[in-house]
Write a structure and sequence with these properties.
This protein is of the alpha+beta class. It contains six helices and seven strands, in the order βαααβαβαβαβββ.
């Protein structure tokens, strides 16, 4: 197999920004639409033909500012926990910053969007977001930050205020 020039980075670091590509919740909303017989909504079409952000992932994978990255296949409420567990860190997500056109629950707990969830050196995150959008025409949005580990749960915020949320995301058997 050919060798890649992409270095594997899996460790989020305290102070990293948590970012996502694109918008979240379309596939989950699309599944609900399909289940209710609405087969031709924008969300239903997206659910049937969601495409992974391969080109964008390769581009991000070459960037030293990116410390951890995965696709959003089970919803960010579940997927951020994988990063937290592997990196032994905590996470704080501002629900007001999560990019979605639908109910927030679709964005947080719905899967199969195949957008990217990543952590980026906090000092370079805003610049990387601008460069990413210029290169790909897709937004890269800062939605939170990596913290010291305090529990196994994500700290959900609405701006400066911590909120309780009963959001789990998809869990495999």
């Amino acid at each position: 197999a050919p060798k890649s020039n992409i270095k594997r980075r899996r460790d989020a670091r305290v102070g990293d920004a948590i970012c996502v590509t694109g918008k979240l919740g379309r596939s989950s909303k699309g599944l609900v639409d399909i289940m209710f017989g609405d087969l031709n909504t924008t969300a239903a079409r997206h659910h049937r033909v969601a495409q992974a952000r391969i080109t964008e992932g390769v581009w991000l994978g070459t960037r030293s500012e990116v410390h951890a990255m995965m696709d959003v296949s089970d919803g960010i409420a579940s997927d951020i926990k994988h990063i937290m567990e592997m990196s032994k860190v905590g996470a704080e997500i501002d629900t007001q910053r999560v990019p979605t056109d639908y109910d927030l629950r679709y964005a947080l707990s719905g899967g199969e969007d195949y957008e990217l969830l990543l952590t980026v050196d906090g000092a370079h995150a805003e610049r990387l977001c601008r460069e990413f959008e210029a290169a790909h025409g897709t937004p890269l949005t800062i939605i939170g930050r990596i913290t010291e580990p305090t529990s196994d749960d994500v700290c959900w915020m609405e701006g400066d205020k911590q909120v309780e949320m009963d959001i789990k995301g998809f869990t495999h058997f």
